[in-house]
Structures are given as C-alpha cells and as structure tokens.
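Consider the following input, taken from an annotated entry for Peptidase S8 and S53 subtilisin kexin sedolisin (Chitinophaga barathri).
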Amino acid sequence: MRRNQHCYLLLFLLMAASCAKEPRGIIAPAADRPAVQRDRGFIVIAKEGASLEGISEDLKALGVKKFVLREAIKELGLINVQTPDPSFPEKARKVDGIQSVVVDPVLNWRLPEKHVRINKQELPVAGGNARAAAPAFDPLSFLQWNLKSVKADEAWAAGFRGQGAKVAVLDGGFLLNDPDIAPNIILSHSFIDGEEVQYHGAEGFSHGSHVAGIIAGADNEQGIVGVAPEAKLILVKVLGDNGTGPTSALINGIFYAVNNGADVVNMSLGVELPRKTYKDDNGTPDDPSDDYIVEYDRDIKDLVIAINRATLFATLLGTTCVAAAGNEAYDYDVEKRFITYPAAALGVICVASNGPLGWGINQDTTLYVPSIFTNNGKNFVSYGAPGGNYSIPLNTQIVNVGGIVRPEYVFDFVFSIGGYDEFSGSFFYIWSTGTSQAAPHVSAVAALLYGKSPRIMSPVLVDLIFRRSVDDYGAPGKDKYFGLGQVNAGKAVRL
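Applying the prediction step yields:
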C-alpha cells in the first residue's frame, strides 16, 4: 500500500513512462548478453515520454560495430548498451527521443579501509566475564561497541528488532552460507557478468557480508548480532569481487531492490566522479582507435542524471537510500575537483564515520570521535554513525579484551562477519573500519522504523524521525562530521 501511495509522484520525474501504466521490469535480450570481457558501455538517457522500444530499434539500426543492447528500464528512461565504437554517442544523440548518451565507466567503487581477521578457532573460550556485559545473547557481541554507539539495545528493549523490514545490500560478493546472516537472506542477485552472488575473491574478505552482518546479523546465540537482527536481507551484487563494476550495475541494483520490495537500500560503496574531462582508452592503451574523450559538461554531468533517476525512483516509491560518505578525508565544503557518488545523489542519506580511540584499553571511553579517514562537509554529510577509528601512528599496544589478544587499534574497528577461506571452507570474523561500516548502522535503524510502522513509513518520515532523535555531537547544530547528528535507535523507535 505504501508503494502505491508514492507511485503518482513519479509523474514529476524525467522518466520514459509512468509506473501506473507500464509494468516494471528490465528488458534484457538474453541472447545478446556479452561475454565477461566487456566492451565499453554507454547509458542512453531518453526524453520524458519517449518510447524505449522505438529508441532501441533505432539504435540497432545505426550500424556501429559490435553493438549489444543490454537492457532497457522503462521506469527510469534508461537504456544500457555496449560497443567499442567511439562514434556511437555522436550518432545516437541524433536519434529522436534521446536526451543524452553518456559513457558507462567501469570504476573501482570499493572504498579504501583497514581490516583484521580472527579465526573462529580462537573464539570458543574467548569472552570470559565480558559476556556478562554483552548487549545480546550472541557470545561475541561484547566486542560490538558499535551497538552501544547507536543505542541498539534500547530499541530492542522497546520491542523493535526490524521484524518485517527488508534491506537491500548493494555491494560485492556475499557469503550466502555464513550462519550469522543465512537465516535472514530472502533474495540475492548478481549484476556482474560472469560472477555469481557468492563471494570468490582472492582477498578472503567479503565486504558485502561484513556490511550485511552489521545490519541484520541474526540473534541466534552464536557469533555477532546486527542492529536490526530480525530484518530480512536482499543481497545484490553490483561490484565484482575485485571491487570494480559499471555504473549501470549500481543503477540496475537500485531498480531491482525497489521492485523486490526493499524498504532500505544500503550502498557501502562510492567513487569520486571528476569535475574534469579525461580520456578513456577502453582498457586498450596500445589501440587508440577506440579511445573516447569523457567530457565533464556532457558525460559526467549526465551520468549523474542517470544515477539520480534511480535514487529518485527509489525515494518516491518509499525506499530509503543510504550511502557511505567515503574514506579519503576530503572536506567537500571546499573540495571542488570531484564529488563522491552515490552519497551525493538526490534522495540519498550520506553517512560519515566516527568511533573510539582506545576502547581496547578503556571500554568507557567516548565512542564519538570523528574518524580520521571520513569524508566530511556540512553540506555533504547527512548523519554520523559508527564506522571505527584509528590514529597515526597506530596504537600497537597489546591488550586483552575478553580473552582476545590483539594490538589496541584493532578493537577500535567494527567487528562483524565477512572472512572466508575458500580452500578450507572456513569462516572468519573481521574487524574493519570505514564509512562502509557507518552506513549500514543508519540503514539498520531505518529498518527498525519500517518494522515498527510498515504501512506509513517513508524516506521523508525516516529523515524526519532521524532529525528529531539524533544525538548532537561535534559542533552545535549541523556540522561537517556528524551532519544533523549521530543516529540513535532507542530514541528513533520511541517517536
């Protein structure tokens, strides 16, 4: 019902068709699916009301070499195509009904971060007296200072644990059989050619699983627990296991999540889109015949239009979009060379990171020190959340927390799942730090709200509740590191 109430708002979007008249779905000619080694992609942006079927036929008739029509999304007015022919954009822009043609760059969306793993074999006797202070029955939750940071236990005590809410995690590969998230997975899909949803990366760290565990790790008396332990997970692979992926995969992932009932879309990923013109060599630096000049005033600006169409589609259909601010310590109140997307996209909640320094020594220390790495900006950041922290140089003092011995800085990271040795089939727990870890806390608190009030909750209402329930750390009022404030689950569910 909530989604139907929002549907009429799509009439105001620059999309190809009304959601009330067109069935949702991606038109994807399976026979034309390309091999894993992709040629350059382009996103064709249609004018409002234009027929995507007619445009698609006209594009095929252009006669450019190795042309592949990948998919057309009617509700967004977008068509994804492939061709190494650098003449395609100029020819396609002359087709009736086309507003713009932009390159679909394959980018590294993985935000740089630090992580440390621990074998499960080290944990059976760990915990000791620390378990008595754990916020949940799960034996390792005593390591999850982040739960205290967002007051998750207060929301649970009030009876709200995310039941009925659906959170889509857009990320790289996932560990579908990890017992800490497996009970809550209801759907998964991959938009990366040649890669299944299951993680197979050589690094052994499933970033997406770490994020999913923060959101909805099951409260099953083993391992860790998520902020919304009864929420359900829709796991969407939009990045390869190496962290790269085309922008169209992100757009398709948002569209897929909304169409499959996601209340919240978490995007712990990002890329700095340059505010300048540059050359794309199509991955063939020795062959200038397929080089393409990516112009800022045309390709970059219009690529943002394509991303915004997806995030607005989600927002207007009642899905809250959340994204990480990025980990390069950029101050976007002054930085003008580039901007991080999708955090800067329309309708997206941008989350900066904070965390403790010295928690491994003193568990009563403040949890709200702005992270050394977090991107920031008063006009960029929406809210703050726990993403971990560290100092330079790292605090390498050896400490013992509940029987677990590590350098102190490790305990200032966020503890979750995500480690995997494919050779032995062994799972590991991971401490990691980054805005990738901050964003899922906000997504999880949003899930608590959708679980509490499924019939009326919306992105606008989520933001309104956040504004009224956040804790004001940092400079009074809105500031560059916490935005409007630190999310507080306990206060949020009581409004």
